[in-house]
Design a protein that fits this description.
The complex is a heterodimer of chains A (430) and B (1003). Chain A is built from 22 helices and 8 strands. Chain A has 430 residues and is α+β, with helices and mostly antiparallel strands. In chain A, helix 2 packs antiparallel against helix 7, helix 15 runs antiparallel to helix 16 and helix 16 packs parallel to helix 17. By secondary structure, chain B is mostly beta strands. Classes of the chains: A alpha+beta (430), B mainly beta (1003). At the A-B interface, helix 1, helix 2, helix 7 and helix 10 of A face strand 22, strand 24, strand 26, strand 28 and strand 32 of B. Chain A: It comes from Mucilaginibacter oryzae. Chain A: Pfam families: SusD-like_3, SusD_RagB.
Chain lengths: 430, 1003
C-alpha cells in the first residue's frame, strides 16, 4: 500500500481530537461568564444586594436586637430578647447565636464586590452612563453600609476586599474603609432614581440608596470617626436650599419573603411594643409628636408604634438630617448653629433647647435621637458614639465598656478561619 | 520407496464428558489436509499409519494423536479448564495470558450462568475473583450490589455510602454504569439490563498497570465484558429455560398477639407514669382487635416464582459471524407488590471485506428492565393486634397505604467498528458507539379512606456518544515480539431529567400526574460532561520469557476548570516467565511460572459535572437553612452565587498510585494453578468540602483533600483433578486480605463525624490513621446492677450523669466516661469498630461423575464489625410504642429486669425521657464474619449418543438451590445484608431462598 493512502486515515484519526469537545454548554444553568449582558441583569444583581441586606437586618429582628431591643426601649415578643436585653449575648440560644454571626453582612459585601467586578467588565454598549453610575454607586453604598453596620456591632472586623482579604481591620480602619466607599458612592448616585420609563420615581428612591441617604451615611461615618468638621462641611455643602425638594428617605422594602423567619412586618404591633412607663419616660405626655408615633393599648399598659407604610422599614430618614446637622455643628464647635438645628428637628418637643450648653447638649441630642429614631435600630450605636453606654446600660461598668462590652461577641462560625479573636470582655464571659 | 496408501478413516472428537465437540479442527502434521468435525463430533479424513493428527478447538487444549489404529481416532479433548481463557481482552487489545504483566482475572460466564441465577452479572461474580468484594446489601429484586475492588477508597461527610465504583467496558465501549445521584430517577441496578447469558467472559483489571490505559476512570478497577459471538461451524441454536420458586427466609422475630399484649401490659405496669393508660386495644376485651394476632410478615411476604428464558442463534463462516439472542426474565419478589422483569436482545454481526483486510463489527443491544416496588417504605412491622388490610373490620381505613412504584430502565446501545489491516502487522480501528438510557419512574399512593392519590412521574435520559480510534503495530522479529498501540477517544455524556408530582392530592382514576392548573409542580435538570483522551501502550516480550509493558494515557475532562483540565496516567510493568529458564528445565511438574510487578497511576472523578465550573444559583440555603427570596420592591433581585459552595478552579482528579507484585504458577499438568498478588493502593485527593471563613460570602469549598491507603494480599488456588476414570473434581478457592487506612483529611486532619443530609449523626467516623467509616460509639461496660456501681465524682460527690443529663439508675447501660468529667456526652464516644472486611473470598467446587455434575459455590467474609441496627431499632421503645409496631419476643433477648440479671441489654423503660437504647451503644457492634453456601447445583447432561432419537444435540437439566445456608456469629438475620458502612439493611428486604429448575438445549 502506498504511503499516501494513509493520509486520510491519519486525518480521520485526528478529526475527533478537537479541544472544543471539552467545552460544555451549561444549558439551563447560569454561569458567571457572559451572564451580565443587559442593564436589567445588573439591576437584579444590585437589588440582590438589598435582599441580602434585608436578610442581615431583619432576620430575627436583628436591627432591633442590635439597637432598641438591646437597651430595653422596645420589647420584641421573642423568646430570645430576654437574653439580649440582659446582655447574655453568648447564650446558647440558636437565634442569639445567629445574631452573633456576621455571615449575612458579608454576603452583602460579596454581592457588592461581584457587582462592581461585573460593572467594570461590562462595556458601554451594555451599561450606559446613568445606569453604570447608579449600580456602581448602589454597590458601593451597600458595601459601605454593611461594613459600617458591622463595625458598630462588633468593633473590629475583617476585610473582604480582594487586596487584603481576611485582614483584621480595627474599628477606625473599618469605618474609614466604609467612608471611602460612601464618598465615592455619593459622587455617583443621583438624588432621584429613574424608573423604566426614565421618569423620576419616589417609590424607587425610597427603597434604594440615593444621594440623600448615602450623604447621611457618610456624615454618620465621619461623626463616628470623630471628623465632625468634615461631616459638617459635607452636610452643609450637600444639603442646600436648592436640594430641599430632592430629599428622600431610605428604607428596606419588605416585599414578600419566602423565608418564614424573616418577619414581613418587623415593627408590627403584635411583636414590637413599649411599656407605657418607658414611653412616658422617653416621650413625656404632652409632647405633640407622641400621638402620631404611638398607639396606646386599650388597657393603657403598652404602646405600639404607628407604622405609616408597612412595606418599608425606614433606616435612614430625612427627619434625621437636622439631628445630624446638629451633632456635626455641636461637635465642630458651632453650638448656636447646633441648637438651631436641634430645635428645628425637635418640633413639638416640650423642652426648651435654646438654653443648652456644651455640657448639656449631648444628653439633649441623645434624648431627641432616642425619640425620633425609635424603631430604626440606632440606639446602641448612638450610646457608643457619644460615650454613654454605661449610663444607659446598667449591666456594664465603664471598665466593661473599655474591654468591649458594648460590642457584640462573635460566633464561633465567624471567628473560624478569620484573623480576629473575641474581645476580652466576651472572652471572660465564655 | 513405496508410499503407504492413504485410507479414508472416520473419527470422533468428544469432550471429557463424552459430548461431541462440534467444529473442532482436524489437521495432519506436515500436510495441508484438514477438516472439521460435524454435529455429532465426527470427522472424515485420509490418513496413513504413522501420521500425527492435530485436533484443536476453542476452549480445549489442542491434542496430538499418532494414528496407528482406528481406536486412536476417538479423540477426547481436555477442556482448557482454567476458567481463565488463554487469550484475554485487556485494555484496547487482546493479549495471551502468558504475556500479561498486570493483575488481571477472568471468568467464563457460561460456567457461572449454568450454576447460578441472578438478575445481574455482578452478583454472579461474587466470591469468584480474589480482591473483588461484592456485597448484596438487599434482597430486593433489581437492587444494586456494592462492588469494591481492592478496598474502599471513597470518603463522604454524609450518609451517601461513598463507593469506589469500577469502570465497566462492554466489547471495548465504556458504558453508563450508574447515573449521578441528582439524576438517578430509578434506584434499579443500571447494569441489570445486561443479560448474563449474553456474556462470554468478564475480565477484571485490578492493578494500575492493567487499568491505567483507562486513565481517569480506572482507579477503582476496570471490568471488561465480552459478549458471545458466533463460532465457525454449524449454527448453534440454544434454549435455556428455567423456572424457580422463591422461598421466604427466616423473618423478624415477632411476639404475636397474646405475648405482645402481655409485654405491653408489663411495661406499663413497671414504668408507666401515673395517669398513663394502655391503648384500648390492649385492655378492652370487647374491642374486636383485642383477640387479634395478625401475622403481618406472613401476609406481606409470600413464596413467589422466578422465570428466566433465553434463546440464541450463533454462527460463523468465511463471511464473518452473527449472533442474536433474546432473553426474558420475570422475578417476582417475596415481598408484596415487588418484582423485576427484564427483556433483552443482543444482535452482533461481523463482516469481512477486502479479502479480510477489512473487518466490520456491529452490535445492537436493546433491553428493558422493569422493577416494581412499594412507594415509600411499606412497613411489615405493624402491631400484631392490628387487623390485616383484608379484614372487613378495617375496610376503608388507613391501615397501610397501598400503591405502586415502577422503575423502568430502557437501554439501547449501538456500536459499530471497522478494523483495516493497512500493511502487515499494522492495523487501524475506528469505532463509534451510541448509548441511550432512559430511566422512568411512576409512583402513586392511594389513601384507602379518602381514595385520594399522590402521584409522581419522572423521566431521566442519558446519552453517551463515543468515538475511538486506535492504530496498532505488532511485529514479531525473531524472538522479539512487540506491540505498539496509539489511540484517541472522545466521549460526551448528557443527562436530563424531568419530574412532575402533584402537590395536593385528589381523588383520581388515573395513575398519571394530571391535575388542574396550579396543582402540579415539575422540575427538570440537565447535565453533561465530555472526555477527550489520547493513549498509548507498548508491550514487548523476548522469547516469551522476559516481558515488559508500559502505557500512558492523558485525559481531558470538561468537569475541570480550564487551568486544570488534563491529567496524565502512566504505568509500567514487567514479567518473567521463569519456568522457561534452563535451570527450571528439570522441574517437570512446573508447567508455567511467572513473576510480575507493576506500578502505575490512575484516576477517578466525581459525579457532579459542574463542581469545578461553578453552577450559579440565585438563592441559596445558608447554614441556618433559610431560603432567600429574591424580590425587592417589586423588582426581582438576583445575586448569582455558586450553588455548590465557593468555586474551586483547582479541583482535579483523584489520583491513585498502585504498586503490585504477583506470581502465577501452573503445576502438575496444569491441574493446579496458584496466583498470588500483593498490592499497595494510595488514593490521593478525594473530594471533600472544607470550611471557608464566612467573610468570603461562602461557608465551604470543595477541595482535593483526603487521602486513603489500601494494602492487601490476594491468593487464588484452582485445581482440576480426575479422582477416577469417571469422577472429576475441580475447585477454585480465592481469598483476599485488605486493610485500609485514612492518611490525610482536610482542616488539619480533623475527624469527620458523618452526618446525614437531614442532620442526623449516625455514628460513623472518618479519622486519620484508622480504617474508613469506623463506628464512633459509646463504649459499653455492661449494666449497672447496683446503685454503688454508678461512679461518683470524689470532688463534688455528684453521681455520673448519663446521656442528655439523665440521672442514671440501676438497670441502665454503663458507658465508659472516657474523659473522666463525670458526664456522658459526645466527647465520650470512641472509635469502636471497623466495618471494612479484612478477608473476603469464595470457594467453588465442581464434581462430575459421568453425566452428573454437582456444583457448590460459597463466599465468605472474615474480620468485619457490623451493627445490629435491625434489633436496635426494635428495642428502642418510645412513649408511644404501644399499638403501632410489632414487638419482638423479649424472652429471646437478654434484657435487664431486676438486679442480678446478667443481661446484655438494659432495662426497657419507654418513659424514661431519655431513650435507654441508643444508636451509639457499642454492645450492638458484632462480629460480621460469615461463610455462606451461595448455591448448590445438581445437573445432568444428556448426549446425542444417549438419546439418538431426540431432535437436539445436547440437553442439560439442572436444579439449583440459591442462598442455601449462612454460617455466622452475627445475631441478626444475615451478615451479608449490611451496607458498606456496616449497618444492618435486612429490614429493607431479606434475601430470598431460591429453588430453580432448568433445562438447556442445544440444537
Amino acid at each position: 500500500m502506498k504511503f499516501w493512502k494513509l493520509i486520510p486515515v491519519v486525518l480521520l484519526f485526528f478529526l475527533f481530537a478537537c479541544k472544543k469537545n471539552l467545552t460544555i454548554n451549561l444549558d439551563n444553568r447560569t454561569v458567571a461568564e457572559g451572564y451580565y449582558d443587559s442593564p436589567q441583569k445588573f439591576e437584579q444583581a444590585a437589588v440582590g444586594g438589598y435582599v441580602d441586606l434585608r436578610r442581615a437586618l431583619v432576620a430575627n429582628y436583628a436591627f432591633l436586637m442590635y439597637g432598641e431591643a438591646r437597651t430595653g426601649d422596645l420589647a420584641v415578643a421573642t423568646d430570645y430578647q430576654p437574653a439580649v436585653v440582659s446582655q447574655k449575648l453568648t447564650s446558647d440560644n440558636r437565634y442569639v447565636k445567629q445574631l452573633t454571626d456576621w455571615e449575612y453582612f458579608y454576603d452583602v459585601i460579596h454581592d457588592a464586590n461581584d457587582l462592581l467586578d461585573n460593572i467594570n467588565k461590562a462595556d458601554n454598549s451594555i451599561l450606559n452612563g446613568y445606569k453604570r453610575n447608579l449600580y456602581k454607586g448602589e454597590a458601593l453604598a451597600l458595601k459601605s453600609y454593611a461594613y459600617f453596620y458591622m463595625a458598630r456591632i462588633w468593633g473590629d472586623i475583617a476585610s473582604a476586599e480582594t487586596n487584603n482579604f481576611g485582614k483584621h481591620l480595627t474599628n477606625q480602619e473599618a469605618v474609614t474603609l466604609a467612608s471611602g466607599f460612601a464618598s465615592e458612592a455619593k459622587r455617583l448616585l443621583p438624588w432621584r432614581l429613574l424608573n423604566d420609563s426614565e421618569i423620576e420615581s419616589a417609590a424607587l428612591t425610597n427603597i434604594r440608596f440615593s444621594k440623600t441617604s448615602v450623604t447621611s451615611l457618610l456624615a454618620h461615618e465621619e461623626l463616628w470617626l470623630g471628623k465632625a468638621q468634615d461631616a459638617y462641611t459635607l452636610l452643609t455643602n450637600t444639603f442646600t436650599t436648592a436640594t430641599t425638594d430632592s430629599l428622600s428617605d431610605f428604607g428596606i422594602s419588605m416585599g414578600v419573603d419566602r423565608r418564614t423567619d424573616i418577619p414581613q412586618k418587623p415593627l408590627d404591633a403584635g411583636v414590637v411594643s413599649m411599656t407605657i412607663d418607658s414611653l412616658n419616660a422617653i416621650y413625656p405626655a404632652g409632647d405633640s409628636r407622641r400621638a402620631g408615633m404611638f398607639n396606646i393599648s386599650s388597657d393603657g399598659k403598652t404602646a405600639t408604634m404607628i407604622v405609616a407604610d408597612a412595606t418599608i422599614l425606614p433606616l435612614i430618614t430625612k427627619r434625621e438630617l437636622n439631628l445630624l446637622f446638629a451633632e456635626a455643628a455641636w461637635r465642630s464647635g458651632n453650638l448656636n448653629a447646633a441648637k438651631t438645628y436641634l430645635i428645628r428637628a425637635a418640633t413639638g418637643a416640650k423642652e426648651d433647647y435654646s438654653t443648652l450648653t456644651d455640657a448639656t447638649f449631648a444628653n439633649a441630642l441623645l434624648k431627641e435621637r432616642r425619640r425620633m429614631l425609635v424603631g430604626t435600630g440606632q440606639r446602641v450605636f448612638d450610646l457608643i458614639r457619644l460615650g454613654k453606654v454605661s449610663t444607659y446600660i446598667p449591666a456594664f461598668t465603664d471598665a466593661d465598656v473599655q474591654k468591649g462590652a458594648a460590642y457584640w461577641p462573635l460566633s464561633a462560625n465567624s471567628l473560624k478561619g478569620s484573623s480576629l479573636s473575641q474581645n476580652s470582655y466576651w472572652l471572660s464571659k465564655k | 520407496m513405496f508410499a503407504m496408501a492413504q485410507t479414508a478413516v472416520t473419527g470422533r472428537v468428544t469432550d471429557e464428558k463424552g459430548a461431541p465437540v462440534i467444529g473442532a479442527t482436524i489437521k495432519v502434521k506436515g500436510k495441508p489436509a484438514g477438516t472439521q468435525t460435524d454435529l455429532t463430533g465426527t470427522f472424515h479424513i485420509s490418513l496413513r499409519v504413522g501420521d500425527t493428527v492435530i485436533c484443536s478447538s476453542i476452549g480445549f487444549l489442542p491434542k496430538h494423536v499418532g494414528y496407528k489404529t482406528q481406536s486412536d481416532l476417538n479423540i477426547r479433548l481436555a477442556e482448557d479448564n482454567k476458567t481463565l481463557g488463554q487469550v484475554l481482552v485487556v485494555g484496547y487489545k487482546s493479549q495471551a495470558k502468558q504475556e500479561i504483566t498486570g493483575s488481571v482475572a477472568s471468568i467464563k460466564m457460561d460456567k457461572v450462568t449454568e450454576t447460578q441465577a441472578a438478575e445481574s452479572f455482578e452478583s454472579l461474580l461474587q466470591g469468584r475473583i480474589a480482591g473483588v468484594n461484592i456485597q448484596l446489601n438487599s434482597g430486593e429484586p433489581g437492587a444494586s450490589p456494592a462492588i469494591i475492588i481492592r478496598g474502599l477508597a471513597a470518603v463522604s461527610r454524609d450518609d451517601a455510602s461513598a463507593l469506589s465504583e469500577p469502570l465497566y467496558v462492554v466489547d471495548g465501549v465504556p458504558i453508563i454504569s450508574k447515573t449521578s445521584n441528582e439524576f438517578a430517577i430509578t434506584s434499579t441496578n443500571v447494569l441489570a439490563d445486561l443479560n448474563p447469558s449474553d456474556i462470554e467472559n468478564v475480565v477484571v483489571l485490578k492493578d494500575a498497570s492493567a487499568a491505567a490505559i483507562y486513565g481517569s476512570r480506572a482507579a477503582n478497577g476496570v471490568i471488561l465484558i465480552t459478549t458471545k459471538k458466533g463460532k465457525i461451524g454449524k449454527p448453534q441454536i440454544n434454549f435455556n429455560l428455567r423456572t424457580g420458586v422463591n422461598f421466604v427466609p427466616q423473618l423478624q422475630d415477632v411476639a404475636g398477639g397474646d405475648k405482645e399484649r402481655q409485654q405491653v401490659a408489663r411495661l406499663y405496669q413497671l414504668y408507666a407514669p401515673y395517669g398513663t393508660f394502655m391503648p384500648a386495644m390492649y385492655t378492652d376485651v370487647t374491642n374486636p382487635f383485642y383477640h387479634n394476632s395478625s401475622d403481618w410478615q406472613g401476609y406481606l411476604y409470600n413464596t413467589s416464582v422466578t422465570q428466566d428464558y433465553n434463546t440464541s442463534i450463533r454462527g460463523a463462516g468465511d463471511f464473518g459471524q452473527y449472533s442474536v439472542s433474546l432473553g426474558y426474565m420475570d422475578y417476582k419478589g417475596i415481598l408484596f407488590n415487588t418484582g423485576f422483569k427484564r427483556y433483552s436482545s443482543l444482535a452482533s454481526t461481523t463482516f469481512y471485506a477486502l479479502n479480510k483486510k477489512l473487518i466490520i463489527n456491529n452490535t445492537l443491544a436493546v433491553a428493558r428492565t422493569d422493577q416494581s416496588k412499594n412507594p415509600g417504605s411499606l412497613n411489615t412491622n405493624y402491631s400484631a393486634l392490628l387487623p390485616l388490610p383484608n379484614n372487613p373490620m378495617v375496610a376503608g381505613s388507613e391501615v397501610y397505604q397501598p400503591g405502586r412504584l415502577n422503575n423502568v430502565n430502557d437501554r439501547m446501545r449501538f456500536s459499530s467498528d471497522a478494523t483495516l489491516n493497512l500493511v502487515k502487522n499494522l492495523s487501524f480501528k475506528t469505532s463509534l458507539s451510541l448509548e441511550y438510557l432512559r430511566l422512568m419512574q411512576d409512583s402513586s399512593i392511594t389513601s384507602r379512606r379518602t381514595l385520594r392519590s399522590d402521584n409522581k412521574s419522572g423521566v431521566g435520559e442519558n446519552r453517551n456518544l463515543l468515538v475511538q480510534n486506535t492504530l496498532t503495530y505488532a511485529p514479531t522479529v525473531g524472538k522479539h515480539r512487540l506491540s505498539l498501540l496509539l489511540g484517541q477517544s472522545a466521549e460526551k455524556l448528557e443527562s436530563k431529567i424531568t419530574i412532575v408530582n402533584n402537590v395536593s392530592s385528589a381523588q383520581t382514576l388515573s395513575q398519571t400526574v394530571n391535575w388542574p392548573q396550579g396543582n402540579s409542580i415539575g422540575t427538570s435538570n440537565y447535565t453533561a460532561n465530555s472526555l477527550l483522551s489520547y493513549f498509548s501502550r507498548f508491550d514487548y516480550s523476548f522469547d516469551e520469557k522476559y516481558l515488559f509493558g508500559a502505557s500512558i494515557r492523558t485525559d481531558g475532562s470538561s468537569k475541570f476548570g480550564a487551568a486544570n483540565r488534563w491529567g496524565v496516567f502512566p504505568s509500567v510493568s514487567a514479567g518473567w516467565n521463569f519456568n522457561k529458564e534452563k535451570i527450571f528445565e528439570n522441574w517437570k511438574w512446573l508447567n508455567s511460572g511467572k513473576i510480575r510487578g507493576s506500578y502505575g497511576l490512575s484516576g477517578t472523578t466525581w459525579n457532579n459535572d459542574y463542581l469545578a465550573l461553578g453552577i450559579m444559583s440565585g438563592g441559596s440555603l445558608d447554614r441556618y437553612n433559610s431560603l432567600l427570596q429574591i424580590s425587592y420592591g417589586g423588582i426581582s433581585g438576583f445575586t448569582p452565587t455558586w450553588y455548590d459552595g465557593f468555586k474551586n478552579d483547582n479541583l482535579t482528579w483523584v489520583k491513585t498510585n498502585m504498586g503490585n507484585v504477583g506470581m502465577d504458577l501452573s503445576m502438575f499438568n496444569n491441574k493446579v494453578e496458584f496466583i498470588f498478588d500483593a498490592y499497595q493502593k494510595v488514593t490521593k485527593g478525594l473530594l471533600l468540602t472544607t470550611a471557608l471563613p464566612t467573610t468570603s460570602g461562602y461557608n465551604e469549598v470543595y477541595r482535593n483533600a483526603a487521602d486513603v491507603l489500601n494494602r492487601g494480599l490476594e491468593f487464588t488456588l484452582n485445581t482440576n483433578m480426575n479422582l477416577s476414570k469417571n469422577l472429576s473434581w475441580s475447585t477454585g478457592l480465592n481469598f483476599a486480605y485488605n486493610k485500609n487506612r485514612v492518611t490525610s483529611l482536610p482542616d488539619g486532619n480533623a475527624d469527620i463525624i458523618k452526618t446525614s443530609t437531614s442532620g442526623q449523626d449516625f455514628g460513623s467516623i472518618v479519622r486519620v490513621g484508622a480504617p474508613l467509616n469506623g463506628f464512633f460509639f459509646y463504649q459499653s461496660e455492661g449494666i449497672y446492677q447496683a446503685e454503688s456501681q454508678i461512679p461518683v465524682n470524689p470532688k463534688t460527690g455528684a453521681k455520673l450523669l448519663g446521656l442528655q443529663n439523665k440521672t442514671l439508675q440501676v438497670g441502665d447501660r454503663a458507658f465508659k466516661d472516657q474523659n473522666g468529667d463525670y458526664k456522658i456526652d459526645v466527647s465520650d464516644r470512641v472509635y469502636s469498630g471497623d466495618p471494612n472486611p479484612k478477608w473476603t473470598g469464595g470457594w467453588t467446587n465442581d464434581f462430575n461423575y459421568k453425566g452428573f455434575g454437582l456444583n457448590v459455590v460459597s463466599t465468605f467474609v472474615i474480620g468485619r464489625d457490623i451493627v445490629n441496627s435491625a434489633l436496635l431499632d426494635r428495642l428502642k421503645l418510645g412513649k408511644s410504642f404501644a399499638g403501632a409496631t410489632s414487638l419482638p419476643n423479649f424472652d429471646n433477648y437478654s434484657i435487664w429486669q431486676k438486679s442480678g440479671d446478667n443481661a446484655k441489654y438494659p432495662t426497657l423503660n419507654p418513659w424514661s425521657g431519655v431513650s435507654q437504647i441508643i444508636n451509639y451503644d457499642s454492645s450492638y457492634i458484632e462480629d460480621g464474619s460469615y461463610f455462606k453456601i451461595k448455591s448448590v447445583t445438581l445437573s445432568y447432561n444428556f448426549t446425542k449418543k444417549m438419546m439418538p432419537r431426540l431432535p437436539f444435540d445436547r440437553m442439560r437439566i439442572y436444579c439449583t438451590m440459591d442462598n442455601v445456608v449462612t454460617f455466622q456469629k452475627y445475631s441478626g438475620p444475615d451478615a451479608e445484608l449490611v451496607n458498606v458502612d456496616g449497618f444492618d439493611m435486612s429490614g429493607g428486604y431479606p434475601m430470598r431462598r431460591l429453588m430453580l429448575f432448568g433445562v438447556s438445549i442445544g440444537l
